[in-house]
Design a protein that fits this description.
Strand order of the largest sheet of chain A: 5-6-7-8-9-10
Largest sheet of chain A: 6 strands, parallel
Shape of chain A: globular
Structural class of chain A: alpha/beta
Oligomer: homodimer
Order of helices and strands of chain A: EEHEHEEHEHEHEHEHHHEHHHEEEE
Radius of gyration of chain A: 18 Å
Number of strands of chain A: 14
Amino acid sequence: MQSITIRRPDDFHVHLRQGAMLRDVTIETARHFGRALVMPNTDPPVLNAGHVNAYREEILAAVPPGLSFEPLMTIKLTHATTPKIVRDARKAGAIAAKLYPEGVTTNSQEGVHDVRKLFPVLKAMEDCGMVLCVHGELPEAFCLQREREFLPKLDDIRRACPDLKMVLEHVTDAASLRWLDDRQDDNVAVTITVHHLLLTLDDVIGGSLKPHHFCKPVAKTNEDRLALLHAVLSGHAHCFLGTDSAPHAQAKKECAEGCAGIYSAPVALAALADIFDQNGLLHRLEYFTSTAGADFYGLPYNEGTVTLERRSFPVPRSYPGGVIPFLAGRTLPWKATD
Amino acid sequence: MQSITIRRPDDFHVHLRQGAMLRDVTIETARHFGRALVMPNTDPPVLNAGHVNAYREEILAAVPPGLSFEPLMTIKLTHATTPKIVRDARKAGAIAAKLYPEGVTTNSQEGVHDVRKLFPVLKAMEDCGMVLCVHGELPEAFCLQREREFLPKLDDIRRACPDLKMVLEHVTDAASLRWLDDRQDDNVAVTITVHHLLLTLDDVIGGSLKPHHFCKPVAKTNEDRLALLHAVLSGHAHCFLGTDSAPHAQAKKECAEGCAGIYSAPVALAALADIFDQNGLLHRLEYFTSTAGADFYGLPYNEGTVTLERRSFPVPRSYPGGVIPFLAGRTLPWKATD
């Protein structure tokens, strides 16, 4: 195939930031994605209906004219979140709330340290049809085992709120996928990023130190990567795209205490097309990018299409905002047309 | 104890670099160490007797007047090394030769890809009483398993050259120590760095990305760290200090492709005193720093002493050459006096 036209995709996990950075990066998501689930771990965070409305306005103001893009809004759960806050946020259009364990990633200092204390809030989410998105890492565990060691907490949540829809975000290891398959639970899904389909820990620390390959959860072994690839390429119904595209200015990455996050929005679809094409499965791309996630969230499919063409895409070395993108300087064999 | 005076230590693994960097950093080793085994992976590398003589001169010229410091010279093994090169280097005073597998660390591009091809050279080293120092990582293995997966190659060398003295440098994992103990071989020893007694992989990638904690082999799990600590504190006869102090300018660490290496020379003794003191074993410090290594190498003990005092040592945030030291900005409770 020289080109493939797919239904306009959704990105079910993206960081658009705020202010100048938001104005710089939103175009790269809005260009190719019909919708994106926008993470609430801004600074200050998105905690309630008022924040949701204000942040939605800020995002929409950053969408270039002519692009059709809908931000899917979220709130961040803290120990101050109440059932009323949840219900009000839902009325304001938030479709999900995000659980960050304390200290696991960017701006998670005031995250949750005891999931059980959230159960009344989670019940309210269950009642009003809000999805729980989880950064599933146990911060006190060894870095490579944080994800698998968090899984029992997800089981605790399942037992307390069996009808709550729950997404384990940006899974990186085979253990999480086994957990997903063992549960056979229609209310549980995972998102998978583009970079975790391509990187292992060797790409972060195995040669020189590569801050632009550093994210949380950190990339794991090649066996883990292959398990993710298998789930994505086999059309697993409960695995869908969440890029976790996370822009940081170059100076926040290339420094003594580098931020976690990979800015993949500009290359995500092209890189995915290459991955699916290399495996002779381009016809399955659309399911991963455009329908499996909408099905899980109970959203209509996007109108419109995106076309990917087999032509050289030299990835820019830098993007507005001074952000180094994933695969900077490489040339991809596929390109998404605007 | 408020102070401890020990025989002047040896550092059996240090990178002094060349040119301006060498002139900047040599003082920090010469200040407290009577001797140091100087690594030959400079650029260009130290490959033969001529290089040994020239490099020794360059190092000695960088030792400040009044300090008594002897560089212990090494050559780097490549596939171009011959038995004659080895014998000539030995005559020029080189006491060891270093084996870097191809591609494992700084300036190892032209390293060794087939250890067996080196056997004639290793036999010549065995004959003339030269020590083999090994960076024991299998480059094609997953980063955290490279060290343990290299161990069979060491057994190959043992079988071919049973009388060759061999040091497995900067060991980082429990498997290497088990290997050492299983062999019960008087001709085999390991060096242990200060930073591997203090760091795990969590300190590199577990929070923000810390390039100043990034070295090869990379720090492993806490279980591995505790195994190293146990060996050092128990006075293991075949474990001695090699700091692997490896200065890089700040810009070579805080960048898109950060160099591996931790500059520990300025803090090594103070940090060690703290480690031994915290475990109530200050009386064993001298064995690790000043006699176990000399015994293995068959060298006389150093003349002179170094005194460590229990007083506040605020580690500078930067050293001449623009190098960020290990533990920069921290305050250590022990300080080595000049």
